[in-house]
Specification:
Layout: E1 4-11, H1 18-30, E2 31-39, H2 41-46, H3 58-71, E3 75-81, H4 84-91, E4 98-102, H5 106-118, E5 125-129, H6 142-154
Length: 155
């Protein structure tokens, strides 16, 4: 039996790599239902990501996440995140018991818990997923994968 009925997480999930898979596996381990905030193209236009012009379409990223959870027999609900405030709204959902976060997004989860307690809601459990380190010592990342794809297309 999983520890929480509902857990939440968010991200771009471009080019689902080993780091993403660990992140999503941990969500599936802890939650019976996973609520995913998936960053929309309009949100991506507002933030700077290297090689953003080759980020996969929302639909491709959505299908990859849905397929991942389907193979693990875990229910997932995807919400399109249009701006930074929306992920906080998703996380303040009364049904959620935990947030799955990376080390980089842990501060956002702490902000969400402060907002929750200020509104008289209970804090969410925060589960921090470590970064995946490749055999060459570099961190697994979508940016690195986009950079490699960009460089291959130029040769």
């Amino acid at each position: 039996m999983r520890q929480f009925e509902n857990v939440g997480l968010g991200g771009t999930f471009d080019r689902l790599h080993m780091g993403h898979k660990l992140f999503l596996d941990i969500a599936a381990h802890y939650g019976q239902n996973v609520h995913v905030g998936l960053i929309s193209p309009s949100y991506l236009d507002k933030i700077h990501k290297n090689y953003s012009e080759i980020i996969q379409s929302f639909q491709v990223r959505r299908i990859a996440v849905e397929t991942f959870f389907s193979k693990r027999k875990t229910q997932c609900q995807i919400t399109r995140i249009e701006n930074p405030g929306m992920d906080r709204n998703l996380a303040s959902d009364a049904k959620l018991g935990a947030l799955i976060v990376s080390q980089e997004t842990c501060s956002g989860a702490n902000t969400i818990n402060r907002l929750r307690t200020s509104k008289g809601k209970s804090k969410l459990t925060i589960i921090i997923v470590p970064r995946v380190v490749r055999t060459d010592g570099s961190l697994e990342s979508s940016t690195r994968l986009r950079k490699e794809e960009h460089e291959k297309s130029r040769s």
